[in-house]
Write a structure and sequence with these properties.
The complex is a heterodimer of chains A (323) and B (289). By secondary structure, chain A is α/β, with parallel strands linked by helices. Chain A has a domain of 205 residues: P-loop containing nucleotide triphosphate hydrolases (Rossmann fold). An 8-stranded mixed beta sheet of chain A has the order 5-6-7-3-8-9-11-10, sandwiched between helices. In chain A, strands 2-1-4 form a 3-stranded antiparallel beta sheet, with helices on one face. Chain A has 10 helices and 11 strands. Helices cover 30% and strands 22% of the residues of chain A. By secondary structure, chain B is α/β, with parallel strands linked by helices. Chain B folds into 2 domains: 230 residues, P-loop containing nucleotide triphosphate hydrolases (Rossmann fold, 3-Layer(aba) Sandwich), CATH 3.40.50; 35 residues, no CATH class. Helix content of chain B is 33%, strand content 23%. Chain B is built from 11 helices and 10 strands. In chain B, the strands form 2 sheets. Chain B has a 6-stranded mixed beta sheet with strand order 6-7-8-3-9-10, with helices on both faces. Chain B has a 4-stranded antiparallel beta sheet with strand order 2-1-4-5, covered by helices on one side. Chain B starts with 14 loop residues before the first strand and ends in a 7-residue tail after the last helix. The relative contact order of chain B is 0.15. The chains are: A alpha/beta (323), B alpha/beta (289). At the A-B interface, helix 7, helix 8, helix 9 and helix 10 of A face helix 5, helix 6, helix 7, helix 9 and helix 10 of B. Chain B: One of its GO terms (molecular function) is ATP binding.
Chain lengths: 323, 289
């Protein structure tokens, strides 16, 4: 299996503040990888720096390579990036209203993506747009509709159709269903999975919802404080977490517990740039010692491993901080 | 999996909130000179009963009328027809000046703590405001007591809402709601805007306070798994009607109404996903509209 996306030592900084540090990430062809973390963990910034869409004073460092693109994506100029965006890498954002042009009909917007990249001629693009809408289960009349005439779920399906228009090698979804109702979320998730499976595209799926990641993805990376703290196959990470943060997150989201009280992680997620030095989780971790003031090294392989000085024992969920 | 035992309510337990055949229609702006203005039927005859000390959940998707129902129960809006009876008082047509006891006894916590807290007021003034409005002396001691009850330090009172994280702001909202010592607490999506690790803290806090202060809790959420953890009984709403009511464990395990079945099967859970459920399994037999 060849790697579609290879990210090495990615860092994102604004002036002196590091927001994302040292992220390594590989997504193979047809592979579905999840990126989970709470707000401020740097997961969206990671996605934006892959696409070269960071705000003006925010800088990315390190390396991002895409299979089939012969240049480095970090620091590439706008002219080269605009050829990659929408053709090789496509993105579905959280808020579908702001991702669509309110003054253009849906059909024209979908056709535009193919015309801009000259992948199809004008009449062929129109036919393809109708076909794409049918695949996301929207009626043919939607072609002539404007975004404001559609519901949130319908808009998100249009955004997905747009993203898949040029059969991208990599699809990035950033919290695509957070604003949607559960029954609509189910449909959109299914369409995303079917869309990437049909095209054997790679999927990078960003969310804070563990259950959604477990349903959609095969492999998962857990981010906290701008660092990847644990990575591995979904089944492995969610049943035998090694990093104390992953362990706490799993316990805190377990609403099936029989006790009235939920297990919690003490404290709050610090604001971006205020994470402690060394292990980013040490201020909230019950197992932290003086050793944690040093940044823990990555143990294991890139595809499966963790960065923790006091990892949970293999195959147990014991010792979860009950605060 | 053993369910937690729901609080048993016999027929003797007094009713805290009774809603009888409640209807709320909103007229929309006229679109034609010749035709009457179109009407949105937000609530189409909702009836429910919440016993004192009960934890009652209301679930439904956006647009199902759950917020309209809350507004009517809190007397923030007027019903088209039907009745809302809170602790033996029919509040449906009471004028505002006679709602004083309701304003004290029933308090709300909203979804977005940023927009429900005044950014220009210090936290101690925010928490004291319901007391001042009701004409009670707002002592610094009561404010400190409330801050402590929700797990914030006493010096938090001197700061402004923007200096707090989402979870802490929601604690401030809860402290404000508890200030006039209400008997009924209504929480409208109180944890939907929070991160998972903070969500558990706030859910525990609400649960503890409800127990300690013997509150009646009405908990509204779109997330059936959260409601299942917090509430004894639940009402499922769809298109302005209650389609199913029952003990949360029963409704979750064996939903009767087709809508509830679709809702339950659409919720992704870790357990199901780890035992091999895919996105196709989230879609029940009927496709959503």
């Amino acid at each position: 299996m060849n790697d579609v996306l290879t990210v090495r030592g990615l860092s994102v900084t604004v002036r002196e503040t590091a927001l994302v540090s040292d992220v390594d990430l590989t997504v193979g062809a047809g592979e579905r990888v999840g990126l989970i973390g709470e707000s401020g963990s740097g997961k969206s910034l990671t996605a934006l720096s892959i696409l070269g869409l960071l705000p003006e004073d925010v800088r990315a460092g390190g390396s991002v390579r895409l299979d089939g693109v012969d240049h480095e994506l970090v620091g590439a100029d706008e002219r080269r990036m605009s050829r990659v965006r929408g053709r090789d890498i496509a993105m579905v954002f959280q808020e579908p209203m702001t991702a669509l042009n309110p003054t253009m009909r849906i059909g024209d917007q979908i056709a535009e993506t193919m015309l801009v990249h000259k992948t199809l001629s004008k009449p062929a693009a129109r036919t393809a747009a109708a076909d794409l809408l049918e695949r996301v289960q929207l009626p043919a009349e939607t072609l002539r509709a404007y975004p404001h005439q559609l519901s949130g779920g319908q808009r998100q399906r249009v955004v997905l159709a747009l993203a898949l228009a040029n059969d991208p090698a990599l699809l990035i979804c950033d919290e695509p269903t957070t604003a949607l109702d559960v029954t609509v979320q189910a449909l959109v998730l299914d369409l995303i999975v079917r869309g990437v499976v049909d095209r054997s595209s790679a999927l990078l799926f960003i969310t804070h919802d563990l259950a959604v990641v477990a349903t959609v993805c095969e492999r998962v990376l857990v981010m906290y404080g701008g660092r990847v703290v644990e990575a591995g196959p979904v089944n492995e990470v969610f049943t035998r977490p090694r990093h104390r943060y992953t362990e706490g997150l799993l316990a805190a989201s377990d609403l099936e517990t029989t006790s009235r009280r939920l297990t919690t992680i003490p404290g709050n997620v610090p604001p971006a740039g205020r994470f402690p030095s060394g292990c980013v989780f040490r201020t909230r971790c019950a197992h932290a010692t003086a050793l944690c003031e040093e940044t823990p090294a990555w143990s294991g392989s890139e595809a499966e491993g963790f960065a923790c000085h006091h990892p949970a024992a293999q195959g147990s969920l014991e010792g979860v901080a009950d605060a | 999996m053993p369910e937690h035992i729901p609080t048993v309510h016999d027929a003797e337990t007094p009713t805290a909130i009774r809603v009888v055949d409640l209807v709320r229609d909103y007229p929309r702006p006229r679109t034609s000179l010749l035709q009457p203005a179109p009407v949105v039927h937000a609530l189409r005859g909702v009836s429910l009963e919440v016993k004192q000390g009960e934890r009652f959940g209301i679930v439904g998707e956006s647009g199902c009328g759950k917020s309209t129902l809350l507004r009517l129960i809190a007397a923030l809006d007027r019903a088209t027809s039907g009745h809302v009876i809170v602790e033996d008082t029919d509040i449906t047509r009471l004028p505002e000046r006679r709602l004083r006891s309701l304003r004290e006894n029933l308090q709300l916590v909203f979804q977005d703590p940023m927009s429900s807290l005044d950014p220009r007021m210090r936290v101690r003034d925010i928490i004291a405001e319901p007391l001042v409005v009701q004409g009670h002396p707002a002592s610094g001691e009561r404010v400190r007591e409330l801050l402590e009850a929700v797990g914030l330090s006493a010096d938090a009172g001197d700061r402004y809402p923007h200096q707090f994280s989402g979870g802490q702001r929601q604690r401030i909202s809860i402290a404000r709601a508890l200030a006039p010592r209400p008997r009924i607490l209504i929480a409208d999506e109180p944890v939907s805007a929070l991160d998972v690790s903070v969500r558990a803290q706030v859910l525990n806090l609400i649960s503890d306070l409800v127990d300690e202060l013997n509150l009646t809790l009405v908990f509204v959420s779109h997330d059936l798994s959260v409601v299942k953890h917090v509430c004894d009984r639940v009402a499922v709403m769809n298109a302005g009607q209650i389609v199913e009511t029952g003990y949360t464990g029963d409704v979750y395990a064996a939903p009767q109404h087709p809508y509830t079945q679709r809702l339950v099967s659409a919720i992704p859970t870790l357990q199901r996903a780890l035992s091999g459920a895919t996105t196709a399994d989230l879609l029940a037999k009927g496709e959503p509209a």
